[in-house]
Design a protein that fits this description.
single chain, two-stranded antiparallel sheet, 3 helices, 4 strands, rod-shaped
């Protein structure tokens, strides 16, 4: 009399290795590797059934760790392994992708380092417009140095 060679899941229930499942379940286990002959004089165990287990994905090619598993819905088309779930009519549609960020505003032109328009107020305004952190009492050279450190100035 054949008994299970390995644990087999049918309809969300586990039938233990070494047991003889009920005939209506045995008929659904078609993988020959799931069965073995009972040793002589061993009538087999009574069906060992555990509580339902969570739905598990089918093993991939070459995965024989669950060799006795039976597909309980053979007429259903298998889903691709990583297919996104189909939206149901009662669900909200997926959110729209975020709008592309607007182009950043171009940086203002840096004041000249000497001559007309190169005073501390012009450099303070440039630092403020480019969000460059400077101390309120910083002098012109310190403001220019902070702008250089921030990568805002071309080498002069």
């Amino acid at each position: 009399m054949p008994i299970l060679a390995t644990d087999v899941y049918v309809g969300g229930r586990c039938y233990s290795a070494g047991s003889e499942p009920p005939p209506q379940i045995a008929d659904r286990i078609t993988n020959p590797s799931a069965w073995r002959d009972a040793p002589a004089g061993d009538p087999g165990q009574t069906p060992a059934v555990t509580e339902p287990v969570p739905e598990q994905p089918n093993p991939g090619p070459g995965d024989d760790t669950r060799i006795g598993e039976v597909d309980t819905e053979p007429d259903r088309e298998p889903e691709p392994p990583h297919a996104p779930p189909e939206p149901s009519p009662e669900q909200d549609p997926p959110p729209a992708p975020p709008a592309p960020s607007p182009e950043p505003e171009p940086l203002p032109e840096a004041p000249p380092r000497s001559g007309k328009g190169s005073g501390i107020e012009a450099w303070r305004e440039f630092a403020r417009a480019t969000n460059t952190a400077v101390e309120p009492d910083a002098d012109r050279a310190q403001i220019i140095a902070a702008c250089e450190t921030a990568g805002l100035l071309d080498d002069a």
